[in-house]
């Protein structure tokens, strides 16, 4: 599609959860929409794969939940934490006021493939793969499209201009478009980074996804069926020092916190190439939009991995954006009329984001930093009071389940269906 072709009404940059859900909802409302995905497919490891009840409720409202759950996934009714070898229940999802009273762990490529398949049922939807947005198009101070490089990953790059009445940046925390638009942001920093890795699952392993705390270390093991997807939390900037001690020393640290993994670590993690670093960032744009451009998901507010809420906050943004914008985009609304709507999304979504980021920063500073500093394991046999309370009073486990599973002011589908 070049500048001479009929332009789409909306161009979404980023084929992640926010982009694909918004693309589906707009196409469902009769809007011509193009989604740009810079990779050739969705197959990438260590992307967020925790689908919360808030997202499952959206799928229910769209009539897609049963079909979605046919995809490979793991169901989690309860979250548990292991502290110095003892297991404690933390969150119970079975009492949530939603149709799905559980979390789903699903590889993100399965989630995105499903959304793409559903979106392609509508004639106005188009997905461009190997299509990287490299800049913005503007006319009289208003964004009216993107510069796109197609075929760069297959060695045959071609540059295009794709015009649209609205450009949506859903291209993540390192958003090219928000930088091109020079949108200022507030950075809160983060005291942690995370190392991601895959470790084979063996018979006799624990069955449940859990967090493990021991000896000043924190490891999350996500049950992915035939392997564990593991997140090892380290102090901010501590990656180089960890590497300097050698991969064998890293094996020893993992084995200390999760002894059942010990024998398989040398083969699963032969070198540092098998360990991926996520540099944790928590930030938020001061303004999520300018004329012709709207930012959603991590492009508007980078989240900490605490609670695995990032993918679900992004989906909530997409639903709210569709509720707000689909009627205008499906009609003959002018660019000026569309622009007047854009600030309303930030007014709708900024409060839930602020509350969630504040909770994440509290957990980072009051739980993870003390854990990594060894402060929670200085007294033998001592169990932190939150774990004692949650273990003794089962009803209290509904509170973290509500916060993680449904979040703050969850959205519901109100965008029209053409």
Précis, in short:
The chain is an alpha+beta fold. Helices cover 33% and strands 25% of the residues.
Describe the overall structure:
The protein contains twelve helices and 21 strands. By secondary structure, it is of the alpha+beta class. Helix 9 packs antiparallel against helix 10 (335-372).
Topology, element by element:
Elements: E1 10-13, H1 17-28, E2 33-36, E3 50-51, H2 53-61, H3 65-68, E4 74-76, E5 78-83, E6 86-92, E7 103-105, H4 108-119, E8 125-128, E9 131-139, E10 142-150, E11 158-163, E12 166-169, H5 176-180, E13 185-187, E14 192-200, E15 210-214, E16 217-223, E17 227-235, H6 239-244, H7 247-257, H8 265-268, E18 276-278, E19 283-285, E20 289-290, E21 293-295, H9 310-329, H10 335-372, H11 385-392, H12 398-405
Parallel strand pairs: 1-2, 1-12, 2-8, 5-15, 12-21
Antiparallel strand pairs: 3-7, 4-7, 5-6, 9-10, 10-11, 13-19, 14-17, 14-18, 15-16, 16-17, 20-21
Pick out its properties.
alpha+beta; 6-stranded mixed beta sheet; 12 helices; 33% helix
């Amino acid at each position: 599609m070049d500048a001479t072709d009929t332009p789409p009404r909306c161009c979404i940059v980023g084929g992640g959860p926010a982009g694909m859900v918004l693309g589906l909802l707009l196409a469902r409302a009769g809007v011509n929409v193009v989604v740009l995905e810079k990779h050739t497919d969705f197959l990438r490891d260590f992307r967020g794969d925790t689908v919360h009840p808030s997202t499952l409720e959206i799928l229910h409202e769209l009539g897609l939940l049963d079909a979605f759950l046919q995809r490979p996934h793991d169901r989690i009714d309860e979250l548990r934490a292991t502290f110095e070898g003892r297991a404690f229940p933390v969150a119970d999802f079975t009492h949530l006021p939603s149709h799905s009273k559980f979390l789903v762990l699903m590889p993100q490529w399965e989630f995105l493939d499903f959304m793409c398949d559903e979106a392609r049922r509508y004639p106005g939807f188009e997905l461009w793969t190997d299509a990287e947005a490299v800049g913005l198009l503007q006319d009289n101070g208003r964004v009216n499209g993107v510069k796109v490089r197609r075929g760069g990953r297959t060695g045959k790059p071609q540059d295009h201009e794709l015009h649209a009445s609205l450009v949506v940046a859903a291209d993540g925390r390192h958003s090219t478009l928000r930088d091109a638009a020079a949108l200022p942001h507030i950075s809160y920093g983060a005291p942690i980074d995370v190392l991601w890795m895959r470790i084979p699952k063996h018979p006799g392993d624990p069955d449940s996804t859990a967090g493990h705390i021991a000896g000043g270390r924190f490891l999350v093991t996500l049950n992915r069926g035939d392997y564990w997807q593991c997140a090892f939390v380290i102090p901010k900037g501590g990656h180089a020092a960890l590497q300097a001690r050698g991969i064998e020393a890293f094996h020893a640290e993992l084995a200390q916190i999760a002894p059942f993994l010990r024998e398989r670590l040398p083969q699963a993690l032969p070198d540092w190439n098998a360990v991926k670093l996520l540099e944790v960032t928590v930030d938020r744009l001061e303004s999520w939009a300018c004329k012709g451009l709207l930012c959603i998901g991590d492009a508007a507010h980078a989240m900490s991995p605490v609670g695995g809420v990032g993918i679900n906050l992004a989906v909530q943004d997409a639903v709210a954006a569709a509720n707000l914008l689909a009627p205008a985009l499906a009609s003959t609304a002018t660019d000026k009329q569309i622009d007047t709507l854009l600030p309303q999304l930030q007014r709708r979504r900024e409060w839930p984001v602020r509350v969630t980021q504040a909770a994440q920063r509290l957990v980072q500073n009051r739980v993870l930093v003390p854990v990594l500093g060894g402060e929670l394991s200085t007294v033998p046999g001592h169990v932190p009071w939150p774990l004692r309370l949650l273990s003794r009073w089962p009803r209290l486990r509904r509170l973290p389940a509500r916060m993680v599973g449904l979040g703050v002011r969850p959205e519901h589908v109100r965008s029209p269906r053409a």
